[in-house]
């Protein structure tokens, strides 16, 4: 049943002082409402517990982020958009930045607040595991004064918290003690975005000489409250990441959670996914720190670029705009290996139209420049790489060159695009042989074969780019 | 029928809508969406889900995209609201509206006002968005006709034209 607005009282006192005085006068009578992304949904469903609301939206005392040498103090009334835009959050608290990005679309990010998310206490909230691993503390305020407590102690049961009836969350404090940590966040939901998590993970870790020095793992949606996997962490600290440890970590994690069946998932599925997520995190941590002991400078620089610049910079490695945007959106990458893996994944998920766009960026085998009408877009970098890749053809005998040129034209007539082959390390003769064989392919087979060749070209170009 | 003793007083609430000053009498918990549609007769914003999931009631409030079904009207006091009705000037459509028309960005039309405002909000912050950023900027707006590719294309095209001007 929808609520009737005429039955509700609401005031907007305009200062934090006035709000806490009101809460103190009639403890429990007034429900604070910030951006309304949860309260208004309950209101629409006729499920609000009371009839009196006090607006705390946009209170200046709650909507600021203070940065000191030791900590970041985020006002409870800061929105997800505020968090996404904040430089220090982006640089030092990547897990919170990802969670802010994943929470709803921009309209809800413009209104949903970090304090509201904490008080709403959903075990599925994406930002809460991040707060756990960052050792967040909360400042609670009332007319009695302020008190500060560890966020880890705040949730006492399903939708139950330590917040007293006359208190508000004033700020969330994050100690700035995790620079250099590897961080990993992932949510598993029905879709990639706009979906409440079935399970989500936030992980922070540091590995030195192959040994786990510090590790922090928290999961959402696997217990009545967001949980820090302290037993699992204990089993991992001081150990070398190997297959035995992965197995032990999976078992420890599954023993430490209490998932339930609900409309979004089942307890069994959640337990299995929780185990997988912990193992994935450890694998990434391991890969990042073994392959990238000296972190790649090109990658680090690229990770920090604005999206548009990052797309421009990586585009010549492939030529497809959708690929470049897809891979730029997955930043930051911890290692070259992770970048190469993501490249393949994105490439395989593209449409044939995107593949064709990439093909158009190559010169015909034996020629210097791409011939397509859009060839003016082809970057200097791409032209230089093409020249390197096809070096062996430039040095081939004229007869072979002529035959290649002839077969190229036949290919173009047949498939209406240029012939794509990963030329690196292949002689002109070999290339001619491949071309003649592929001329016999049907359209669908040939498109996939060309796409596979382009995938290999992209891998080689990315490796060159990383070494630049 | 409601019990008279439960009834609260209406308040006078002022804000600007599409550049015009408006004063309304409303219960503070009335939804901005209902005030726009029923008192101000601006029916461009639509009610889809009524719980902030679909974006068809999107408007700009002080420049920020919001779901007007989740805004108690009291919180709009003193703010600047822009609805779809505020985009065209006279008979001249906004670049985004034109681009939606030309690129087939509207089918049944229910999501269109919200889509266009979400796109405007995106372009105001990022004049030259990538396709990925366009998709992210529109992520909170659902099209029940599933006409997303044309919508994304319409926004990309509008961005190109706007930066070209």
Write a concise synopsis of the structure shown.
Chain A is an alpha+beta fold and 468 residues long.
Describe the structure.
The complex is a heterodimer of chains A (468) and B (165). With 468 residues, chain A is of the alpha+beta class. Among the domains of chain A are: 182-291, Enolase-like, domain 1 (2-Layer Sandwich), CATH 3.30.390.50; 305-468, Oxo-4-hydroxy-4-carboxy-5-ureidoimidazoline decarboxylase (UraD-like, Orthogonal Bundle), CATH 1.10.3330. Helix content of chain A is 46%, strand content 16%. Chain A has a five-stranded antiparallel sheet with strand order 4-5-10-6-7. The longest helix of chain A has 25 residues, at 267-291. Chain A is elongated, with a radius of gyration of 28 Å. Chain B has two domains: 10-86, Beta-grasp domain (Ubiquitin-like (UB roll), Roll), CATH 3.10.20; 95-164, [2Fe-2S]-binding domain (DNA polymerase, domain 1, Orthogonal Bundle). Chain B is globular. In chain B, helix 2 crosses helix 5 (148-164). The termini of chain B are far apart. Chain B is α+β, with helices and mostly antiparallel strands. The A-B interface holds A 3-12, 33, 35-37, 40-41, 43-45, 51, 53, 55, 57-58, 81, 104-108, 110-111, 193-194, 307-308, 311, 321-322, 325-326, 328-329 and B 2, 6-8, 26-31, 50-53, 55, 58, 64-67, 69-72, 74-75, 77, 118, 121-122, 128, 130-133, 136-141.
């Amino acid at each position: 049943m929808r609520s009737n607005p005429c039955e509700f009282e609401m005031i907007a006192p305009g200062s934090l002082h006035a709000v806490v005085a009101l809460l103190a006068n009639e403890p429990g009578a007034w429900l604070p409402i910030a951006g309304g992304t949860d309260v208004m949904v309950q209101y629409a469903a006729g499920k609000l517990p009371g009839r009196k609301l006090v607006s705390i939206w946009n209170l200046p005392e709650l909507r600021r982020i203070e940065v000191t040498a030791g900590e970041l103090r985020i006002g409870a009334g800061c929105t997800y958009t505020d968090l996404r835009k904040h430089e220090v959050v982006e640089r030092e608290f990547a897990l919170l930045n990802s969670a802010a990005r994943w929470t709803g679309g921009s309209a809800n990010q413009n209104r949903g607040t970090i304090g509201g998310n904490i008080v709403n206490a959903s075990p599925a909230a994406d930002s809460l595991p991040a707060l756990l691993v960052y050792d967040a503390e909360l400042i609670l305020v009332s007319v009695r004064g302020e008190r500060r407590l560890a966020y880890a102690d705040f949730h006492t049961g399903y939708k139950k918290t330590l917040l007293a009836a006359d208190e508000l969350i004033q700020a969330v404090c994050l100690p700035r003690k995790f620079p250099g940590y590897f961080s990993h966040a992932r949510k598993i939901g029905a879709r990639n975005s706009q979906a409440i998590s079935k399970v989500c993970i936030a992980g922070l870790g540091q590995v030195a000489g192959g040994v786990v020095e510090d590790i922090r793992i928290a999961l959402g949606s696997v217990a009545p409250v967001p949980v820090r996997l302290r037993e699992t962490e204990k089993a991992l600290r001081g150990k070398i990441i190997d297959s035995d440890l992965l197995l032990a970590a999976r078992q420890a994690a599954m023993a430490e959670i209490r998932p339930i069946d609900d409309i979004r998932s089942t307890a069994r599925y959640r337990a299995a996914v929780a185990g997988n997520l912990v193992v994935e995190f450890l694998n990434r941590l391991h890969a990042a720190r073994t392959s990238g002991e000296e972190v790649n400078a090109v990658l680090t620089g690229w990770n920090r670029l604005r999206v548009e610049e990052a797309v421009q910079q990586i585009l010549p490695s492939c030529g497809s705009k959708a690929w470049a945007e897809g891979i730029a959106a997955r930043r930051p990458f911890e290692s070259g290996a992770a970048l190469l893996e993501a490249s393949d994944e994105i490439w395989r998920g593209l449409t044939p139209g995107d593949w064709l766009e990439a093909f158009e960026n190559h010169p015909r085998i034996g020629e210097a420049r791409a011939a397509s009408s859009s060839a003016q877009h082809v970057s200097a970098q791409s032209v230089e790489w093409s020249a390197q890749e096809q070096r062996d053809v430039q040095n081939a005998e004229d007869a072979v060159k002529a035959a290649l040129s002839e077969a190229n034209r036949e290919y173009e007539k047949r498939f209406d695009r240029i012939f794509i082959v990963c030329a690196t390390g292949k002689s002109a003769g070999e290339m001619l042989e491949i071309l003649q064989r592929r001329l016999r392919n049907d359209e669908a087979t040939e498109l996939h074969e060309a796409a596979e060749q382009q995938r290999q070209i992209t891998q080689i170009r990315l490796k060159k780019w990383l070494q630049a | 029928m409601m019990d008279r003793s439960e009834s609260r007083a209406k308040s006078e609430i002022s804000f600007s809508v599409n550049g015009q000053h408006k004063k309304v009498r409303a219960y503070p918990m009335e939804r901005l969406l209902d005030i726009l549609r029923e008192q101000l007769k601006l029916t461009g914003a639509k009610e889809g889900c009524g719980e902030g999931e679909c974006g068809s009631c999107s408007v700009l409030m002080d420049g920020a995209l919001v779901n007007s079904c989740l805004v108690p009207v009291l919180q709009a006091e003193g703010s600047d609201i822009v609805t779809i009705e505020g985009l065209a000037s006279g008979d001249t459509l906004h670049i985004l509206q034109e681009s939606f028309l030309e690129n087939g960005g509207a089918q049944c039309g229910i999501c269109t006002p919200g889509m266009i405002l979400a796109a405007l909000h995106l372009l105001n912050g990022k004049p030259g968005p990538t396709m990925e950023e366009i998709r992210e900027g529109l992520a909170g707006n659902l099209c029940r006709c599933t006409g997303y590719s044309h919508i994304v294309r319409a926004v990309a095209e509008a961005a190109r034209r706007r930066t070209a001007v």
